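Researcher: Good morning. I'm working through a list of sequences from a screen, and I'd like to move beyond sequence-only analysis. For each chain I'm collecting a predicted structure so we can compare shapes side by side. This is the next one on the list. No need for commentary yet; just the structure.
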Amino acid sequence: MGACWISWGELAGLIGNDAAHALCRTRGGVTLYVPKVPDEGGELARIIGLAALRKLAQVYGGEIIVTPNRRKEGPRKGKILDMLARGMSEREIALRLDVTQRYVEYLAKSARHSARQGSLLEIFNAGAMANANQQSSKEYGCS
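Model: Good morning. Structure tokens for this chain:
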């Protein structure tokens, strides 16, 4: 089941501006499970309040949502790639660095693609060098 993307207007209209702002500043841009039954002591209730959580659960209870990112700006591509290389999850990286999970997933995919392209380029270059060396050897009478 994929995540349901919620716009700022829809979220603010459902739970109010203050609760929407609090949610987007703390968990915006990453996947978030909305419980079917709101938990008074749960993380979401602490962030947006129980009344707002009840409204959110009425519409999105049991679903995974993503809200707009209203966290700190300035993605750190190098740090993200390093954290990915160390095996951290996209979600964990996004929360730690205040970027969207989708951005981290994009960088992970791009890095995998670049690694494959780099390997192909190295193979191509090695083959081209071998052909050039072989051609030079023939030109100078070497076998």
